[in-house]
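EI: anyone free to look at a 217-residue chain?
SC: sure, send it
EI:
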Amino acid sequence: MTFSEENYLKTIYHLTAISDSEISTNSIAEKMETKASSVTDMLKKLSEKDLINYKKYQGVSLTEKGSLSAKMIVRKHRLWEVFLVEKLNFPWDEVHDIAEQLEHIKSEKLINKLDDFLGNPTEDPHGDPIPNANGQIISIEKQLLSELNEKQSGICVGVKDTSSEFLKYLDKQEIALGSKIEIISKESFDLSLKIKVDTKELTISNKIASNLFVKIM
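SC: here you go
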């Protein structure tokens, strides 16, 4: 596959993860910031390679072959993110764009050795699961912080928003993966939360809470 084909396949994979229906051409175009006509041309190519199921005006879904290929791209991306954070000390808000470049390396042997070198991690620095060499994913029990009630506590296990701006905000507030978060109170007017992060108390908006995944304690 070309780099462009891999990017499309990965985009369809991510959109599929958050949708209960087939993926529209327009949603792919919006995600990739390109024209719908360009998306249509690429979908035809991917369909010819048996990577997607595609009929005009009926949406897109991954074939079994396409799903496995997409998982391998995601696997490479997330392993490289772990490497950049754990071994090269990159902050977690900088690694996505670099991993976007590294994920296109073709050597399966290199990626498997990288996986072993890192100790076979199951999650990337943002808490997202890393597919293994067979495409299997260990599911993580989690829910949004905004869904917790007062006096409930959880461990931060991931983020929904992986933008640099959001991750920098979390760093500023000293919220990281593994942080214990307790809901002290919830404001009924705007659903903002007063929380305790380890030993520090602060107030966060519902928007922030809706982008943090926790595992209930």
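EI: The first strand starts at residue 52 and ends at 54.
SC: 👍
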